[in-house]
TrEMBL record:
Transmembrane segments: 38-65, 105-130, 151-180, 186-204, 246-264, 270-294
Domain of life: Eukaryota
Keywords, comma-separated and alphabetical: Membrane, Transmembrane, Transmembrane helix
Name the UniProt record assigns to this protein: Uncharacterized protein
Length: 322
């Protein structure tokens, strides 16, 4: 009787038991270890133009900012001809601000495109090695080209949603302070709003990050469709998602603290920028690996991520090798 009862579970492809937050976190380095041959060219493709962009920022933006600061400091408010000096400097400052704004917009757009490529490459590399034993960079490159354009609108939606959430959260805190003044009740209410807002933000951040993973791995899902799919993945596993994201948040903050404590005083400004930029890149890659590990864990636990996805990956590899 016991054997008969277990047959439907085997036949139905029942998933494995759900993992804990620590197991998912430990699964991220394992994924990175399996995919290191694919990740190295992806990182090089990202780091070379990003380094050039960082160098361009150093030689173009920083001198412009320092020049503007010098012009501001050159103005003496106690000088009788203060208004004349302001009138003379205002056109130059306006021109510098326009140039700075245009340069920053170009840098932000290029940085966004480079980052989206890195995300697409890392997510697909980790997802593909989890499904198949042999994956070449050619297979990964074809996958990136097919899914990159879908990831961009998802990232735009995620950034807009994050900005809207933070704006509403801060406005709500401001309203409480203005309405109740600085009283015990306002402090208690602000504490509740702050703690609740942080917990909700951690949960939403997990949904948003899963939406990014969905956009990069599941073709045809991007934007709000990907975020809706991500909400389905996280639904029913909210506590696990919250624990995973809390641990990831602590690791990120610890990494940022360690980077800020690097002994870089007295070094060249460009060296300092690169010394802080590279660790942040590797920290971001680790966070992406955690998100992919959570995604894979859900697929395995629900029995949806084994044979079917392995067949799709094998099919992609065969098509790309033709």
């Amino acid at each position: 009787m016991k054997e008969e009862e277990s047959l439907p579970l085997i036949a139905g492809g029942g998933g494995s038991p759900p993992s804990s937050a620590l197991e998912i976190l430990c699964g991220a380095p394992k994924l990175l270890g399996k995919a290191w041959k694919l990740l190295i060219p992806v990182l090089l493709i990202y780091l070379i133009p990003s380094s050039l962009l960082l160098f361009g920022t150093y030689i173009a933006v920083l001198p412009l900012i320092s020049d503007m600061v010098e012009k501001f400091l050159a103005v003496k408010t106690d000088d009788p001809s203060f208004s004349d000096m302001v009138d003379a400097l205002l056109p130059k400052l306006t021109e510098d601000l326009r140039g700075l704004a245009a340069t920053e917009v170009v840098i932000m757009l290029m940085s966004f495109l480079f980052s989206s490529f890195l995300l697409t490459g890392v997510i697909n590399a980790l997802a593909m090695v989890a499904k198949a034993d042999k994956v070449t960079f050619k297979d990964l490159f074809y996958k990136i080209m097919r899914t990159w354009k879908g990831l961009v609108p998802t990232l735009v939606y995620v950034n807009l949603l994050a900005f809207a959430y933070l704006t509403i959260w801060l406005l709500l805190l401001g309203v409480v302070f203005f309405v109740f003044d600085l009283s015990l009740s306002s402090i208690a209410l602000c504490t509740v709003i702050s703690v609740s807002g942080i917990l909700l933000l951690l949960y939403l951040n997990m949904v948003w990050s899963q939406g990014v993973v969905v956009s990069a791995t599941e073709e045809g899902r991007y934007g709000l469709t990907a975020l809706g799919r991500a909400a389905e993945l996280v639904q029913g596993r909210r506590r696990l998602a919250l624990r995973v994201n809390c641990l990831k948040f602590l690791i990120v903050q610890g990494g940022n603290l360690a980077i800020s404590l690097l002994p870089l005083e007295g070094m060249n400004g460009l060296i300092i920028m690169f010394a802080r930029f590279l660790p942040l890149v590797f920290l971001s890659v680790f966070c992406v690996a955690v998100d992919v590990a959570f995604y894979n864990e859900h697929r395995n636990a629900t029995g949806k991520g084994s044979c079917e996805e392995l067949g799709e990956t094998t099919k992609d590899v065969k098509l790309n090798n033709v």
